[in-house]
Write a sequence for this structure.
């Protein structure tokens, strides 16, 4: 038997007054609209002016890794982080947005295609926002050679060569408007080999999502892996259904220091590869326990191979889990990444705002371990839920 629970949260705005009008100045820019992320009602904000009128999208001919819905609202921040991590070209649209510090805010990004279409619908088409009658880059990739734009004169979405320098760039950011929830979380049990009909109590819920919950047996063959599901000792951060490759983070925090101040670790400078950083740290810093050794020594439900995540991997936890109300991450104490800054400091990650400040290696902060996995399931049995 596998334990399963229904996360049936709904999101409401506290008051109508909490939602600004399109074009109002708020949170560092112009208000665009709202979207739901987990248990939070989020606001979309766009910068008041163009960052550039001639920046290329970047890395012509390079297919940047992307997630299942790179065009969706709520995806722009993750798209931008992925582009910046995989395209080293300076002056590209995504990097301009990523490096922007405006009106006290530093968490800007290049909007996804649907986010940019929302900007046209709510602002540009109404004559708001001082947009040029021109195409603007989105962070949505169309192919190895092209990326998507939105014409702020017509609202048409088009694809253009990534190297073109006659496109405009605007930055966007998110903020939380409200987090009112409506919980209904019964526990149901499903036979792993047959379809099972289960019933949960009223009131009615919309679009429930399913998560495998501890305790569960790892011997079940058919597992529905989704972001936030429990699998192989942790919760799923990323998963590619085509390749079967994914990542998992642990469920709980551990407090530790990063390592020894004064030791410069060769090879612990990757922004994306926590496994590489962790291996380098363990080989060159003899102090124990430290954040990297705690991760490396973990064995959960028989699964080892854990490592201290790099900043980009922590950002994936932030975007895929935390912003969707999952993972129970601390927003008051920073998390150690495995990336070193210099011989005295290393990079941390704040789940309050996604920032990555440096801190002394001997400081006590918290750790979330990560591991990679490969899993290609056999055909799944349908779970039928009635009400």
């Amino acid at each position: 038997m596998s334990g399963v629970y229904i996360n049936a949260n709904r999101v409401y705005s506290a008051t109508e007054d909490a939602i600004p009008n399109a074009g109002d100045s708020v949170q560092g820019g112009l208000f665009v609209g709202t979207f739901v992320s987990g248990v939070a009602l989020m606001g979309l904000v766009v910068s008041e002016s163009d960052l550039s009128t001639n920046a290329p999208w970047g890395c012509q001919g390079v297919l940047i890794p992307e997630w299942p819905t790179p065009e969706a609202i709520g995806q722009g921040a993750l798209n931008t982080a992925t582009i910046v991590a995989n395209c080293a070209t300076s002056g590209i649209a995504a990097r301009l947005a990523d490096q922007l510090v405006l009106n006290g805010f530093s968490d800007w990004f290049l909007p996804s295609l649907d986010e940019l279409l929302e900007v046209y619908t709510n602002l540009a088409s109404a004559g708001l926002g001082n947009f040029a009658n021109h195409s603007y880059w989105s962070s949505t990739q169309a192919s190895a050679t092209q990326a998507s734009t939105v014409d702020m004169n017509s609202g048409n979405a088009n694809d253009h060569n990534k190297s073109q320098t006659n496109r405009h760039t605007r930055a966007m950011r998110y903020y939380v408007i409200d987090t009112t929830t409506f919980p209904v979380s019964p526990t149901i049990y499903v036979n792993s080999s047959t379809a099972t009909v289960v019933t949960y109590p009223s009131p009615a819920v919309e679009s429930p999502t399913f998560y495998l919950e501890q305790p569960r047996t790892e011997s079940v063959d058919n597992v529905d892996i989704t972001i936030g599901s429990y699998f192989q000792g942790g919760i799923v951060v990323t998963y590619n259904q085509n390749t079967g490759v994914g990542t998992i983070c642990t469920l709980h925090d551990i407090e530790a220091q990063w390592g020894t101040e004064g030791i410069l670790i060769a090879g612990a400078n990757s922004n994306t590869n926590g496994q590489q950083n962790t291996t380098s740290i363990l080989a060159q810093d003899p102090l124990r326990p430290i954040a990297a050794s705690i991760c490396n020594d973990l064995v959960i439900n028989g699964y080892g191979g854990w490592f201290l995540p790099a900043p980009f991997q922590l950002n994936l936890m932030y975007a895929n889990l935390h912003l969707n109300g999952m993972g129970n991450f601390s927003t008051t104490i920073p998390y150690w990444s495995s990336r070193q800054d210099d011989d005295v400091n290393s990079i941390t990650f704040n789940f309050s705002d996604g920032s990555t400040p440096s801190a002394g290696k001997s400081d006590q902060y918290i750790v979330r371990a990560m591991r990679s996995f490969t899993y290609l399931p056999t055909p799944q049995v349908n779970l039928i839920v009635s009400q």
